[in-house]
Amino acid sequence: MLENFISGVERFSGWLWGVPLITLLAISGIFMTIKLGFFQFRYPLYIFKQTLGSIFEKPKGEGTVTPLQALTSALSSTIGAANIVGVPAAIMFGGPGAVFWMWVIAVIGMAINFAESVLSVHYREKNEEGEFVGGPMYYMTKGLKMKWLGVWFSFALMIELIPSIMVQGNSVASTISQTFHIDGLYTGIVMAAITGLVVFGGIKRIGRVTEIFVPFMALLYVGGALVIVVINIDQVPAVISLIFSYAFQPMSAVGGFAGAAIAETIRWGFARGLYSNEAGLGTTPIAHAAAQTDHPVRQGFWAIIGIVIDTLVVCSATAFVVLSTGVWKQEGALDNPSALTTIAFKESFGAFGGLLVTISLIFFVLSTVIVVVFYGSKQAEFLFNLKAAQGIKVVYLAAIILGAVGAAQTIWSFLDLALAAILLPNIVAVLLLSGKVKALKDEFFESEKYYLKDIKDKKIS
């Protein structure tokens, strides 16, 4: 009876996270892109200069952490195992053309992520410790005057993170067990200890840690991927041709690849892009809400850069590794797509390559856990108080250990449903507040205090 119920839940969540939610997110992204005047296409250089181009300048305005620390905290959550193991799956089930659609949805999703972050900063407030806090629960409560929707979002996210953290704990424990033959319990205890040391220091400590951690782990992995692409540089023109030509036509079977229809190509590309950068989920704006900034729109630009790094850089690095080495065409590739990145690195660098992927995976997952524990504590703070926020951190640390020893695997089937319970109220809120986002965006670009001043100062200098 229980097995049938779980099987039914898995089928329903598989359907829900297929065409229905992907279509909702794609349409929402297109709507916000049009509403905001295609700004991500019109101001790319300006956005880059105001974000990564300004990291050595003193941040403007007030906040708890620097804009860069807010970005690296958000990236800790989005850059995860899916960037390494999810992209090969998209290629195996959707074909090389899925990479093109992953890029398309990333660019469209920028408008959603921008809107979430702008709203989070605009409606943020200070807590008892003098730290800035914000996120969907605050713009639902203060912007929409729908506290019940904020409570729904907050409670759903706080609870969903327990099995989610268990999955992450299990992922690291399994990887370390296979590579270093260390018992899962010890891995879980060490992970929980490291996470606890960081998260009990609050957003300031998390920001300081991720500011060093994220660039290091991203450069380690992307650097290795770039070396592989350079080794196979003669294959790059063919890879680019595959990505663009099979984005618009079905691809027949070749080697270990079973072939894919156009609908599947688009679906897998959209799914990989959206699941990777979390646009619409309402999680990354919680990190951006604490940033030091003089206007919500300026921090919104950092949210856009987050998608560039997560999807257009890290996911693309994985895609080019898998496609340029040809591992996607090897016999049996469809049996275990998640292993293809490791196989490509091993073929290129030997045993060191496999170790590099393993270490990257551990870093990616550990940084994800650190930040999602922070996200969960902010929900408890919103729903109850600061004491409850500290209490839920202990629950999450226990979840890491339980997950590492393989406990509660049946709960994992409900993860996607819980994610839908978070995403739906957030998308509704963003769409209902789209007028406010547009007003803030127009204010920024039309005011002598912000965009026009920046342009004028640049001309003077």
Automatic annotation (TrEMBL):
Tree of life domain: Bacteria
Keyword Transmembrane helix (UniProt): yes
Keywords attached to this entry: Cell membrane, Membrane, Symport, Transmembrane, Transmembrane helix, Transport
Pfam families assigned: Na_Ala_symp
Membrane topology: Multi-pass membrane protein
Keyword Membrane: yes
Single GO molecular function: amino acid:sodium symporter activity
InterPro entries according to UniProt: Na/Ala_symport
Sequence similarity: Belongs to the alanine or glycine:cation symporter (AGCS) (TC 2.A.25) family.
PANTHER family in alphabetical order: AGSS FAMILY TRANSPORTER, SODIUM-ALANINE, TRANSCRIPTIONAL REGULATOR, LRP FAMILY
Protein name per its UniProtKB record: Amino acid carrier protein
Source species: Pseudobacillus wudalianchiensis
Lineage: Bacteria, Bacillati, Bacillota, Bacilli, Bacillales
